[in-house]
Amino acid sequence: SSKSALRTISSMADAPNYGYYRNPRFSVNQLAEYMTTTTASQRESVIRSAKFPRKPAVIPYSQSKRIIGNFLTGNTGKLSHIDDDIGRIETRLRREPDGWMQDELKRNLDALKAFKAAFTKNRLKRLSFLPGPVDLAMKLGGVRINCRLDVSVSETGGDDVTYSGGCVLFVANTDSSRKNLEDRSKSVATMIQWELESSNPNIEPLPRLCISFDIFGQKITKAPNTSTRLRSQMRSSCEEAAGRWNTVEPPGGYDGPPWR
Fold first, then answer.
1. CA torsion, points 5, 7, 13, 16, in degrees to nearest 10?
2. Using an 8 Å Cβ cutoff, are 130 and 73 in contact?
3. pLDDT in tens, 9-31
4. Is 141 left (phi over 0), alpha (psi -120 to 50) or beta?
5. Under 8 Å between Cβ of 81 and 116
6. Second label for 4, Cα 20 to 30 Å away, from 168, 234, 235, 259?
């Protein structure tokens, strides 16, 4: 509810706004962003955000991502379930006064409506989805890469063999958040496959089941069948970031743990 959310934000106000990671680490999205930078200052900015993460008061689209995840793992394909959630949010929106909560409800409403169109367009009924999130991690070029799958993906072939994969949802609807999204989506899909391979040597995830799902763009990006060159670029980017990690200082207003 709005009151519980306000209490949570109030309690967070007493906590530091920033965290600190001594050792190099990226989320899979941060690695993808790092790889699409064009200047040294942009790369430093990505490292700074990863090394000194700012704690958000509200995680954008958290409600819609949870609803989408529940819908996918229900494996019914009945969009009437999404319509029910849209109706509930619209009811709350009519009662909610102006402010950040109303804005967040509107964002989640837009995301669910976009998902309905994207689900139909991309014919996802043939896939089976398993509950998430699933947290994966691997070391690459001196950097720990964390990947959170919103849902796992599976498909049973004609030989009754079950093939695996995973899905990361991109819920991005502003110019800044969609910058280089096509390249970032491809990198994330590739890392999903790589991390799944690393987590269990007994499985061989299929590239076409390792997907980035751009909700507002209504597009699914699959891992390429051949990714040797891209994986080499990822490793080189991580080696570069690891080498620069200790030189990057915190942002202005930093109030996190001692870092020197």
1. -80
2. yes
3. 445 556 889 999 999 999 999 99
4. left
5. no
6. 168
